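Sharing a chain and its predicted structure for anyone who wants a worked example. Both blocks are below, sequence first, tokens second.
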Amino acid sequence: MAETLHIVGGGMAGSEAAWQAAQAGLDVVIHEMRPLVETFAHQSGDLAEMVCSNSFRSDDDEQNAVGLLHWEMRAAGGLIMAMADRHRLPAGGALAVDREAFARDVTQTLTALPNVRVETGEITALPDDGAWIIATGPLTSGALAEAIRTETGADALAFFDAIAPIVHHDSVDMSKAWMQSRYDKGETEEERTAYLNCPMDRDQYEAFIDALLAAEKTEFHEGETAGYFDGCLPIEVMAERGRETLRHGPMKPVGLTNPHQPDIKAHAVVQLRRDNKLGTLYNIVGFQTKMKYGAQTDVFRTIPGLENARFARLGGIHRNTFLNSPTLLDDRLRLRSRPHIRFAGQITGVEGYVESAAMGLLAGRLAVAEAAGWDLPAIPATTATGALVTHITGGADAKTFQPMNVNFGLFPPVDLKGGRRNRPARYKAYTDRAKADWSQWLNAGHAGRAAAE
């Protein structure tokens, strides 16, 4: 395969696409504007840097759609999952990683390949020829975004992604906080004590909500509107929807027992999850925010145990631009008006690290098949990856298209035989069917490639 694949963006999707293509023999150039051109959210020039959270969410591949997506990517030899497993941190039933070590290892692994080259610099226009994958993520540069809008004749949709703050562990008052995963979930003691918990009684919770609502917030630029993705709402926006919203969301007190006061049920609990392998940094789970920095320190230090908290990073907010993919992309992730260009990752309208990487995995494999001249079968919609790509390239209503996490609602209904109708049985049926169909799709791809060669 003499053709070179150019990938714009070295995030989750771009890194995974590069790995899949390079492993199949394609020469790959990753065009990454960082660190030459900085973004609001990124801290380094490493590939696959995690900026919003260090969690890939549930790793349960039998009862959870994102866990199933993990399974599919592992089965396809995905780099992102391999590096996540290598740098895994205790997080109960979730897959959380040491984000700095993870990104560093992804970077070193890719750049060590003889057929992968990273070129630093900003791509500001859509290419006229060649094989390209655009995987620029939620922080697509203004120039490239404008080029995409000009090409498509439609305004890209936008919402705002908020980033959770990170706390130094040694600044937490452990006479008030304790370590425990919800419902003691996990196979080891380390997993069962993966989260740091800060309890609140009713008065403390009400005072926290008051402070949250009164805090000074980031102002939007003229002409911008805040259309949030429900899976990543700032906590102050959740609080504005009702004073009890946080108690039934990231601050729910269920499945936890305070060893300092075992007979007293907390009214609400703030959880922090380990952010690095050393255990020196913890991020506040679900606490994405658009409060101004000064307000953040004031409000978060009202949380019991965080009165003297030191912050390694405060929360922030950035614009996230994505395509109206149902109208612009075909089922092979190609831009209909310029089919030599594929899109992958969050810019396609998937939401989440894993979903973005999965679209990169698919785009990379599709590019390989096209370059080699062999046919890759349509990906089954019964798989997690297939359900996502089906949704963004035609399953969703273009008029109301919004970013989407993988979930069983995107899958074709499963036929439950023998009267098994409870939720665990239904989810297991989804994942069993998906694993069989994904394995068959991978095997068919290998067979098609062998026949072409």
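Comments welcome. The chain has two domains: 4-156+323-452, 165-319.
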